[in-house]
Amino acid sequence: MAFMDVINKSVMDRLGAQSQEFRHTQPYPWIRISDFLYPEKFDQLCKDLPDPVLFESQMGYKRAHGQASHDRLALQYRPALEKVLTPSWRDFIHELHSEAYKNFWREMLGLLIRTLNTRTSFDII
Protein backbone atom coordinates (compact mmCIF):
# COMPACT_ATOMS: atom_id res chain seq x y z
CA MET A 1 0.00 0.00 0.00
CA ALA A 2 1.05 3.53 -0.65
CA PHE A 3 1.96 5.96 2.12
CA MET A 4 -1.10 7.26 3.95
CA ASP A 5 -0.87 10.56 5.80
CA VAL A 6 -4.46 10.93 7.09
CA ILE A 7 -5.74 7.36 7.18
CA ASN A 8 -3.84 5.18 9.65
CA LYS A 9 -2.27 2.44 7.50
CA SER A 10 -1.55 0.20 10.50
CA VAL A 11 -5.27 0.23 11.35
CA MET A 12 -6.10 -0.56 7.71
CA ASP A 13 -3.64 -3.48 7.80
CA ARG A 14 -5.06 -4.79 11.09
CA LEU A 15 -8.61 -4.60 9.76
CA GLY A 16 -7.55 -6.19 6.48
CA ALA A 17 -6.17 -9.14 8.41
CA GLN A 18 -9.66 -9.53 9.94
CA SER A 19 -11.50 -9.31 6.60
CA GLN A 20 -12.67 -12.93 6.60
CA GLU A 21 -14.05 -12.58 10.13
CA PHE A 22 -15.68 -9.27 9.14
CA ARG A 23 -17.46 -10.82 6.14
CA HIS A 24 -18.88 -13.64 8.27
CA THR A 25 -20.13 -11.51 11.17
CA GLN A 26 -23.83 -12.14 11.82
CA PRO A 27 -26.45 -10.89 11.28
CA TYR A 28 -24.47 -8.76 8.76
CA PRO A 29 -20.84 -7.64 8.34
CA TRP A 30 -19.85 -4.87 10.74
CA ILE A 31 -16.79 -3.92 12.71
CA ARG A 32 -15.97 -1.26 15.29
CA ILE A 33 -13.13 0.90 14.05
CA SER A 34 -11.06 3.14 16.31
CA ASP A 35 -8.40 5.60 15.16
CA PHE A 36 -8.93 4.93 11.45
CA LEU A 37 -7.77 8.51 10.96
CA TYR A 38 -4.75 9.77 12.84
CA PRO A 39 -6.21 11.78 15.76
CA GLU A 40 -4.25 14.95 14.95
CA LYS A 41 -5.35 14.72 11.29
CA PHE A 42 -8.97 14.25 12.38
CA ASP A 43 -8.67 17.34 14.59
CA GLN A 44 -7.27 19.32 11.64
CA LEU A 45 -10.11 18.16 9.35
CA CYS A 46 -12.60 19.34 11.99
CA LYS A 47 -10.91 22.74 12.16
CA ASP A 48 -10.82 22.98 8.36
CA LEU A 49 -14.42 22.00 7.61
CA PRO A 50 -15.49 23.24 4.18
CA ASP A 51 -17.53 26.44 4.07
CA PRO A 52 -21.26 25.61 4.43
CA VAL A 53 -22.04 27.79 1.38
CA LEU A 54 -20.45 25.02 -0.72
CA PHE A 55 -23.06 22.52 0.48
CA GLU A 56 -26.35 21.68 -1.24
CA SER A 57 -29.46 21.73 0.92
CA GLN A 58 -31.25 18.37 0.83
CA MET A 59 -34.33 18.99 2.92
CA GLY A 60 -37.83 17.55 2.83
CA TYR A 61 -37.25 14.79 0.28
CA LYS A 62 -39.86 12.06 0.36
CA ARG A 63 -38.40 8.64 1.20
CA ALA A 64 -39.71 5.14 0.66
CA HIS A 65 -41.73 3.19 3.23
CA GLY A 66 -42.91 6.29 5.09
CA GLN A 67 -39.46 7.14 6.44
CA ALA A 68 -38.83 10.69 7.58
CA SER A 69 -36.84 12.96 5.31
CA HIS A 70 -33.08 12.61 5.74
CA ASP A 71 -32.51 16.37 6.01
CA ARG A 72 -28.94 17.48 5.55
CA LEU A 73 -26.49 19.75 3.84
CA ALA A 74 -24.43 17.68 1.39
CA LEU A 75 -21.13 18.36 -0.31
CA GLN A 76 -20.45 16.00 -3.22
CA TYR A 77 -16.80 15.92 -4.19
CA ARG A 78 -15.95 17.14 -7.66
CA PRO A 79 -12.55 18.17 -9.02
CA ALA A 80 -13.53 21.87 -9.10
CA LEU A 81 -13.55 21.80 -5.28
CA GLU A 82 -9.78 21.30 -5.27
CA LYS A 83 -9.39 25.09 -5.57
CA VAL A 84 -11.44 25.88 -2.45
CA LEU A 85 -10.69 22.98 -0.11
CA THR A 86 -7.93 23.26 2.45
CA PRO A 87 -4.81 21.11 2.01
CA SER A 88 -5.96 18.82 4.84
CA TRP A 89 -9.23 18.04 3.04
CA ARG A 90 -7.52 17.66 -0.35
CA ASP A 91 -5.08 15.16 1.18
CA PHE A 92 -7.91 13.22 2.83
CA ILE A 93 -9.97 13.04 -0.36
CA HIS A 94 -6.94 11.94 -2.37
CA GLU A 95 -6.44 9.09 0.11
CA LEU A 96 -10.11 8.12 -0.18
CA HIS A 97 -9.66 7.92 -3.96
CA SER A 98 -6.32 6.08 -3.78
CA GLU A 99 -5.76 2.52 -4.96
CA ALA A 100 -4.55 1.67 -1.44
CA TYR A 101 -7.92 2.62 0.04
CA LYS A 102 -9.90 0.92 -2.73
CA ASN A 103 -7.79 -2.23 -2.31
CA PHE A 104 -8.53 -2.15 1.42
CA TRP A 105 -12.28 -2.24 0.70
CA ARG A 106 -11.87 -4.89 -1.98
CA GLU A 107 -10.14 -7.05 0.65
CA MET A 108 -12.68 -6.27 3.37
CA LEU A 109 -15.63 -7.07 1.11
CA GLY A 110 -13.97 -10.02 -0.63
CA LEU A 111 -14.36 -8.43 -4.05
CA LEU A 112 -12.60 -9.97 -7.00
CA ILE A 113 -13.44 -7.12 -9.36
CA ARG A 114 -10.79 -4.54 -10.10
CA THR A 115 -13.24 -1.67 -10.63
CA LEU A 116 -14.54 -0.12 -7.45
CA ASN A 117 -16.48 3.09 -7.85
CA THR A 118 -16.29 5.51 -4.96
CA ARG A 119 -18.33 8.56 -4.16
CA THR A 120 -17.03 11.08 -1.69
CA SER A 121 -19.68 13.02 0.16
CA PHE A 122 -19.64 15.03 3.36
CA ASP A 123 -22.98 15.64 5.01
CA ILE A 124 -23.94 17.98 7.85
CA ILE A 125 -27.06 16.82 9.65
Summarize the structure.
With 125 residues, the protein is an alpha+beta fold.
Give a topology summary.
Elements: H1 9-17, H2 19-23, H3 39-47, E1 56-58, E2 72-76, H4 87-96, H5 99-109, E3 121-124
Antiparallel strand pairs: 1-2, 2-3
Can you characterise this structure?
The protein is an alpha+beta fold and 125 residues long. The chain has one domain (9-61, 70-124). It is built from five helices and three strands. Strands 1-2-3 form a three-stranded antiparallel beta sheet, with no helix packed on it. The longest helix has 11 residues, at 99-109. The two termini are 33 Å apart.
What brief labels describe this structure?
3 strands; alpha+beta; 5 helices; three-stranded antiparallel β-sheet
pLDDT average, as an integer? 88
Taken together, the total number of domains comes to 1
Uncertain parts: none
Q: Assembly type of the shown chains? A: single chain
Helical residue percent band:
25-40%
Helix segment tally: 5
C-alpha termini separation: 33 Å
Q: What class would the helix/strand composition place it in?
A: alpha+beta
User: What gyration radius follows from the Cα positions, in whole Å?
Assistant: 17 Å
Instruction: Write down the secondary-structure element order.
Output: HHHEEHHE
